[in-house]
Amino acid sequence: MITNIEIEDIVLQQLNSETEFLVDVSVSAANQIKVQLDGDQGITIERCVEVSKAIEQSFDREVQDFELEVSSAGLSESLRLPRQYKKNLGHSLDVIKVDGQKVRGLLVNVTDSNFTLEVESMVKAEGKKRKQKFVEEVSLPYTDVKSALVVISFR
What we know:
The protein has 155 residues and is an alpha+beta fold. It folds into two domains: 4-72, 2-Layer Sandwich (GMP Synthetase, Chain A, domain 3); 82-150, SH3 type barrels, CATH 2.30.30.100. 19% of the residues lie in helices and 42% in strands. It has helices at residues 4-14, 45-57, 82-87; strands at 20-27, 32-39, 67-72, 92-97, 102-110, 114-124, 131-141, 145-150. Strand 1 (20-27) and strand 2 form a beta hairpin. The longest helix is centred in the first third of the chain and has 13 residues, at 45-57.
């Protein structure tokens, strides 16, 4: 059986570590291999094909049959790595915390252990008839996040 470590080693040899990175590798019991890549400026289909070919050439299909899928981290995929958060600084995120709470905000800071969103809300101020915009920074540890999606808005 092909292992995650074998696939990771092959993939990491193919990537330019300064601009490209591995997001995820999974290998099922039936040798279904899924590799997800990303880059600081995105990752092209051509790069996915190159990595796929490198994996294919590393194994003999006569000895081990496998199914292979190499893809880029899509916009519909949750962010998983701090490096993905860093590349999305300045974008809005829809976050669902592990406790089910939803938070939407502008990504303003990223560290290795957490990220910070600038969250806007409308609050009725004391003695005022209208609600006023209130902005607060919310720091979230990655361990508290179930999913974080980049918000795409067309203006």
